[in-house]
Amino acid sequence: MSRLFRKPRPAHTMTNSLRCLAAAGLLLTAGFACAKEWSQVTNPAPGRPQAIGQTSKGCLAGAVALPADGVGYHVMHLERHRNFGHPHLVDMIESIGRATARDRLGVLHVGDLSQPRGGPTPFGHRSHQTGLDVDVWFAMDSSLLGRADSLRSNLDAPSLLNRTGSGLNQMLWDDKHARVLEFASRVPRVERIFVNPHIKRELCRSTTGDRSWLRKIRPWWGHDDHFHARLSCPPDSPQCESQEPLPAGDGCDSSMDWWFRAPTTTPTPGRKAPHHIEISRMPKECQWVLMD
Ligand SMILES: [Zn+2]
Known about the structure:
Layout: H1 3-6, H2 14-26, H3 30-40, E1 50-54, E2 57-61, E3 64-65, E4 69-70, E5 73-75, E6 84-85, H4 87-102, E7 108-110, E8 133-137, H5 175-185, E9 190-195, H6 197-206, E10 217-219, E11 226-231, H7 284-291
Helix pairs in contact: 2-3, 2-7, 4-5
């Protein structure tokens, strides 16, 4: 147990503590009450950085904020306060931003990372709860920000698929997208990157030379307007739960065929993503992260 979870909490936090704990134990609406609070907290939990639990059921202590603007990138939708992550995630985004700027490919538009303390979001994601996930738009036009309002909340990422969703829009797909995906995939701490199956198939078709970086590029529903990069559990986070390791190979085999027998443009498979999780079902350390 870390110092973070043992340290006494100031009296003013007890209102939250009691409300949340009471909700966890007694009220049917517990999940709603606590999930709502995750999105209402605007500052990180103190202490050293720690990703806790699963990316779809976890939280984050000691988060750092990705600055709204940096070399080669801009953060979008500032009103969501989802530009927080484990320091490794912030390092990764800054690193691919620098590579994008160095090679004059355009500018990255960064979507959601995590909330200041991670946890479930009231809309938009099932994962992104532990500060190890980030969405990056495929739109790289440096003039995009000129159309944005002050919080960059009025723009949506444009899809790279054609109108029917049956393939890539070849007017929009560009080698620069492959380059940025390769930058991200070659960051050792990146564990996997989700893209639409049509994008994976195009990468399988067009990549020559060293194809080893394709292994981390995984086909998934949606993800036609952004890619989603996920880091592996950091060594400083013993309570971070790792995912299944990736299968061997570049993933450009017959396993791809399955995707083209299934709809690939819906954002999530099957059931709807839960946007609230009862605090009692989350790792117990997350109760202290939320209340500290
Ligand atoms: Zn995502």
